[in-house]
Design brief:
heterodimer; A: mainly beta; Rieske Iron-sulfur Protein; four-stranded antiparallel beta sheet; three-stranded antiparallel beta sheet; B: alpha/beta; FAD/NAD(P)-binding domain; 4 domains; five-stranded parallel beta sheet; 37 strands; 32% helix; elongated
C-alpha cells in the first residue's frame, strides 16, 4: 500500500475545476466535483496527450480541451465510442485537505 | 419491486422506445417482456428492399441481436403473437398460452399490407411486401417462375418490382392512377421516373383496376376491370398498409383508422401506450420511420415518469431506394391558391426540381435526377426558414450559399468508398456507410458519435446527411425541427434564451432547476453556451463562471497542441509604434518565446508560452500599455484596416482612424462566436471588409456598412446593410448590429449562418427601419461594455485567479 501524500487544501481547487500537481515522473490533474469529491488522473488524454486538467469537468467526467474526448474520472476510461484509458490515482479529502496516493489505482475493467 | 412493462410487437418502433428508455438510465425501472409475431429479433424493415435486390443479407439488417435482449434483461418471445389483452386483470395472453401481467403496456403492432378484396386474393403466390417471410417468398418465386405482377406503383411497389427484376423476373407494375407515386410526386417527376424504370426493363399498366386474380391453386394471371388480362406466376400487393389494430380493438381500446393516442403516446387506457404504424395521432397515421422514432422518444420519456416530452406530429420526406435512380420528395407538392412554384427542368440531363413556396417559406419539394440538396430543402421546410434572401439562387444548392458544403464533388452516389468526406477527422465515405449499416445508425448525431464525421468544423454536415439519407432511405431520421441544445436537455437554444429573459434566470443553478436539466452540472457543450447567454443578458448582475469556459477563455490564451499557449496583444486598428514593438520584443526575449508571427488580423502572435509564465508576461505587456487581444475567445477579435486617406492616394476616408474607434468601442465584448471587423478606405477594399462579420467600405460620400461575411471553411461575402454619412453613425450601427447578434444568435453560430437563418430583412427591420430600436440596442451594447472592457490580462497580472496558473510542485 503506497502512502497518502497531502497535496493541497480543498478550497484551493475551484469547484468543477482542477489543479495540476507536478511530480518528478509526470503531471497529475486533481479535480473537485460539485459535491467536493476529488479525483486524480494523469494529466494526459489517452488520445493525443491533451492536458485533461485544462478541460471542462461535468458530473464525474472531464472533456479534453484538444479533441473533446470525454474521460471518466473514476476509471480513466474514455466514454462513448472512443477507446482508451488514462491512469487514475486514489484521492481523498480529510479535514479540508486533499491527499493522493502516487501508485495508479487498479484499472477498472 | 420493479414495475412490469410488456411490449407487444418486436419491431422498430417498439424496440426503439426501449432503447430510448435505456438512454434515460431507467433500465432498472421495469421488468420487460417483449412479444413478437415473427421468429426474428428486431430487424430494419426499411432495408427489405435492398435484401430483395440482393444488395444486403438478412444478417446485415438485424438491428438488435438476441444477445442485446439478454444483456438488457429483456424476456423475448419470438414467433408468439399476443392474442388477448385483459385490461381488467392487466395481463396479456399469447398464442402459445403464456400469460404475462403488466403495469404498463406498450402496443407497437405496426401495420398489415392491404390485400385488395378481389376473387383469388387468397391464392398461392399472392403476397404482400412487409416482412422477411414475404422477401423469402419472392426470392423463392424468382428462382422457380418468370412472370411477376406488382399491384401498386407507390414507393413500396416500385422497390419490390425493382428487386424482383434484379432477381431475373419479368415485372409488370399495375397502378390505379395515371402517375406513379402520386402521394409523393407530381406529374413531371413521375414521368421521368417511369421513363427510366422502363429503360431498366420494368413494364407498366397505368390506370388499371384489378378485378380478379386468376388461377386454381397457384396464381396464373391478373384480370382487370376492362376485361384485359396479364399472365403472372407471382402477385405482390403493394397498395398500402393498414394499421394493425385488431388486438387493441378487441380489447376495447378506442381506435379509428389506428389506435388513437394523445401527444404523450398514451391511448384512452392510461396504462397503455402505443407507438409506430398502428397509431393514429392528431388524425395522422405515419408509415415512415423518422416519425416513429420521434414517437418512441416521447413515449420513453413518459414511461420513465419524466412527463415532459410531447409528440406534435412530423413532416416527412421520402427517397426511393432503387439503385441508380435519384428521387426525393418532402412536404406538400400540389399548389394551393396563392402558392408560388419554382421549377428547374433539364430533360436532356434527366433533372427536374420543383419547390412549392408559400409566404417566402418552402412548403414542399420534389426532385428527380439530382437530389443532392434534398436534405437542405427539407431542413428549410421544417425550420420554416425565410428564403427571400437567396431565392434567386436556391436551385444552385446549399454550396452556393455560405456556411456548408463542398460544391459539386458532392455527388454522393458517385463517390468511391475511399473518398474523404470529413477532412477534419479523415473519415471516408466507406467508413460512414459501414458504420451506418453495421451499427444500425439513423441520425446525424449517431453518425457523429460513431465516426466523428462532421463532428469538428461541421462543414461536411450536408454531405454526411446525404450519405445517411441515401444509405438508409426513408428511414433517415432527419433531426426534428426543434433541436435540443445538447443531450443534457430537451430545450432548444431559442427556448433557453427566452427562458433566461422571461423568467429572469440569473444563475446557472436557477437555469438548470427551472428547465429540468437532465445532468447535474451540464456538459462541455452546454455550459459555455449558458454562461454566454447569462452574461450577454445580465451583464450587470451575472457572475461569470470560469469553470464553464473553454480553456482558451479561462486562461486568456490559445491552447496549442503541446499544451503551451499563444499570446496576442491588442493593437488598436493594427497601428503600432517603435516603442510598442520594442516592448513586445523585450517580452519575447525575457520569456524565451520560440516563435512569433504576424496574424491574418494584423496583430502579432507569440507562440509557445508556458501557462505559468502567462501572468508575468501579461504584467510586462500591461505596463507597456497593451491589453488582451482576445484572439482566444468567442469574442470581438480585431479590426483590420488599410492605410486610408492619410497616406494612400486612393483613400477616401480615414480608415485607420475609424478602425481604432471601432476597436475601442467593441474590444472585450463576448460574442456567440468569434467576430471580426475591417475598414477599407476605398472600394478597392484592401482590408477585405466584405468577408468580415462587420465591414466598412469607405466611399467618397460616406461609408458602406456590410454584415455577415466570413473567410474560413466556406467563404461568405457580406450583405450590404446600408450606407451612412458620418463616423458617429458607423459606430452607432456597429454597436446595434453587434448587440442584435449577441442577443439573437445561438452560441457558436457565426454571423454568416445567423444572417442566413433569420434573413437579411429581419436585420434591416431591427437596425434600419426601427430607429428607436437601433438606439436601444446600441445603448444595451454600451452597458455591457462597461463590464467587458476590464482588461483580463491586467487583472491576472495583478493577482486574480492565481490558482489557475500555478501548478503544485511535489518533491516526489
Amino acid at each position: 500500500m503506497s502512502e497518502w501524500i497531502e497535496v493541497v487544501e480543498l478550497t484551493q481547487i475551484p469547484v468543477l475545476g482542477s489543479r495540476v500537481i507536478k511530480t518528478q515522473e509526470m503531471d497529475i490533474a486533481v479535480f473537485r466535483g460539485s459535491d467536493d469529491q476529488v479525483y486524480a488522473i494523469r494529466d494526459a488524454c489517452p488520445h493525443k496527450n491533451g492536458p485533461l486538467s485544462q478541460g471542462i469537468m461535468h458530473g464525474t467526467s472531464v472533456t479534453c480541451p484538444l479533441h473533446n474526448w470525454k474521460i471518466d474520472l473514476n476509471s480513466g476510461e474514455a466514454l462513448g465510442p472512443d477507446e482508451g484509458c488514462a491512469n487514475v490515482f486514489p484521492a481523498r479529502v480529510e479535514k479540508g485537505r486533499v491527499y493522493l496516493q502516487l501508485k495508479p489505482a487498479e484499472a477498472v475493467a | 419491486m420493479k414495475e412490469k412493462l410488456v411490449l407487444i410487437g418486436n419491431g422498430m418502433a417498439g424496440i426503439r422506445t426501449l432503447e430510448e428508455l435505456f438512454k434515460l438510465e431507467e433500465v432498472d425501472k421495469y421488468e420487460i417482456t417483449v412479444f413478437g409475431d415473427e421468429p426474428h429479433p428486431n430487424y430494419n424493415r426499411i432495408m427489405l428492399s435492398p435484401v430483395l435486390a440482393g444488395e444486403k443479407t438478412i444478417d446485415d439488417i438485424i438491428l438488435n441481436s438476441r444477445e442485446w435482449y439478454a444483456e438488457n434483461d429483456i424476456t423475448l418471445h419470438t414467433g408468439d403473437p399476443v392474442v388477448k389483452i385483459d385490461r381488467i386483470a392487466c395481463q396479456v395472453k399469447s398464442i402459445s398460452g403464456k400469460s404475462v401481467a403488466y403495469d404498463r403496456l406498450l402496443i407497437a403492432t405496426g401495420s398489415n399490407p392491404f390485400i385488395i378484396p378481389v376473387p383469388g386474393a387468397d391464392l398461392d403466390g399472392v403476397i404482400g411486401f412487409r416482412d422477411i417471410k414475404d422477401v423469402d417468398a419472392m426470392l423463392e418465386a424468382a428462382s422457380n417462375y418468370k412472370k411477376a405482377v406488382v399491384i401498386g406503383g407507390g414507393l413500396l411497389g416500385l422497390e419490390a418490382a425493382n428487386g424482383l427484376m434484379k432477381n431475373g423476373m419479368d415485372v409488370t407494375v399495375v397502378h390505379l392512377m395515371d402517375i406513379l407515386m402520386e402521394r409523393q410526386l407530381d406529374k413531371s417527376a413521375a414521368g421521368l421516373l417511369k421513363e427510366s424504370l422502363e429503360q431498366k426493363g420494368m413494364q407498366f399498366l397505368m390506370e388499371a383496376q384489378t378485378a380478379a386474380i386468376l388461377g386454381d391453386e397457384r396464381v396464373t394471371g391478373v384480370k382487370f376491370a376492362d376485361g384485359s388480362e396479364v399472365e403472372a406466376d407471382l402477385v405482390v400487393m403493394a397498395v398500402g398498409v393498414r394499421p394493425n389494430i385488431e388486438l387493441a380493438q378487441k380489447a376495447g381500446i378506442y381506435c379509428e383508422r389506428g389506435i388513437v393516442v394523445n401527444d404523450t403516446m398514451q391511448t384512452f387506457d392510461p396504462k397503455i401506450y402505443s407507438v409506430g404504424e398502428c397509431v393514429q395521432h392528431r388524425d395522422q397515421c405515419y408509415g415512415l420511420v423518422a416519425p416513429l422514432f420521434e414517437q418512441a422518444k416521447v413515449c420513453a420519456n413518459h414511461l420513465a415518469h419524466l412527463g415532459y416530452g410531447r409528440y406534435e406530429g412530423s413532416v416527412t420526406s421520402t427517397k426511393l431506394k432503387v439503385t441508380g435512380i435519384d428521387l426525393f420528395s418532402a412536404g406538400e407538392f400540389t399548389e394551393e391558391e396563392g402558392d408560388e412554384i419554382l421549377v428547374m427542368q433539364d430533360p436532356a440531363q434527366g433533372v427536374y426540381k420543383k419547390l412549392v413556396i408559400r409566404d417566402n417559406q418552402i412548403k414542399g419539394a420534389v426532385m428527380y435526377g439530382d437530389t443532392m440538396d434534398g436534405t437542405w430543402y427539407f431542413q428549410l421546410l421544417r425550420e420554416g426558414t425565410d428564403i427571400s434572401g437567396f431565392r434567386s439562387t436556391i436551385f444552385f444548392g446549399q454550396h452556393d450559399l455560405g456556411d456548408a458544403g463542398h460544391g459539386d464533388e458532392a455527388r454522393i452516389a458517385n463517390l468511391s468508398d475511399d473518398a474523404e468526406i470529413c477532412g477534419c477527422n479523415g473519415v471516408c465515405k466507406g467508413d460512414i456507410v459501414n458504420a451506418i449499416t453495421t451499427k444500425g445508425l439513423f441520425t446525424l448525431e449517431d453518425v457523429r458519435i460513431h465516426t466523428k464525421a462532421s463532428a469538428s468544423c461541421g462543414s461536411c454536415t450536408g454531405l454526411v446527411e446525404s450519405i445517411l439519407a441515401s444509405t438508409v432511405g426513408e428511414g433517415y431520421s432527419a433531426a426534428p425541427s426543434k433541436k435540443p441544445m445538447c443531450s443534457c436537455t430537451e430545450h432548444s437554444h431559442d427556448e433557453v434564451i427566452e427562458a433566461i429573459q422571461k423568467e429572469a434566470l440569473k444563475s446557472m443553478r436557477q437555469l438548470f432547476d427551472y428547465l429540468n436539466w437532465k445532468t447535474p452540472d451540464g456538459c462541455a457543450s452546454c455550459r459555455p453556451a449558458l454562461n454566454y447567454y447569462l452574461l450577454a443578458r445580465w451583464p450587470e448582475e451575472y457572475q461569470d463562471d470560469a469553470q464553464s469556459r473553454f480553456i482558451n477563455e479561462r486562461a486568456h490564451g490559445n491552447i496549442q497542441k503541446d499544451g503551451t499557449y499563444s499570446v496576442v496583444p491588442r493593437m488598436f486598428g493594427g497601428l503600432c509604434t517603435p516603442k510598442d514593438l520594442r516592448a513586445i520584443a523585450d517580452v519575447c526575449d525575457k520569456f524565451d518565446v520560440p516563435e512569433m508571427k504576424v496574424t491574418g488580423g494584423q496583430r502579432i502572435d507569440l507562440f509557445g508560452v508556458k501557462k505559468e509564465d502567462l501572468p508575468p508576461m501579461w504584467k510586462d505587456l500591461s505596463d507597456a500599455g497593451f491589453v488582451s487581444g482576445h484572439a482566444y475567445g468567442k469574442a470581438m477579435r480585431t479590426v483590420k484596416t488599410c492605410a486610408g486617406k492619410t497616406w494612400c492616394r486612393f483613400g477616401t476616408q480615414n480608415s485607420t482612424g475609424l478602425g481604432v474607434k471601432l476597436e475601442e468601442l467593441t474590444w472585450g465584448s463576448w460574442m456567440p462566436h468569434k467576430f471580426k471587423l475591417a475598414v477599407s478606405g476605398c472600394p478597392r477594399n484592401c482590408a477585405e471588409a466584405t468577408i468580415k462579420d462587420f465591414g466598412v467600405v469607405c466611399v467618397d460620400s460616406g461609408y458602406e456598412l456590410h454584415i455577415g461575411g466570413n473567410g474560413g471553411i466556406k467563404v461568405r461575402v457580406t450583405d450590404l446593410l446600408c450606407r451612412v454619412e458620418t463616423e458617429e453613425e458607423v459606430l452607432e450601427y456597429c454597436g446595434a448590429f453587434t448587440q442584435l447578434y449577441r442577443e439573437e444568435a445561438h452560441y457558436l453560430e457565426r454571423t454568416a449562418p445567423w444572417v442566413e437563418r433569420v434573413g437579411l430583412n429581419h436585420i434591416k427591420q431591427c437596425i434600419l427601419d426601427d430607429e428607436a430600436g437601433r438606439k436601444a440596442l446600441n445603448e444595451r451594447f454600451k452597458i455591457g461594455q462597461q463590464y467587458a472592457q476590464i482588461d483580463p490580462w491586467k487583472a491576472r497580472a495583478d493577482g486574480a485567479h492565481t490558482n489557475e496558473f500555478t501548478p503544485i510542485e511535489l518533491a516526489v
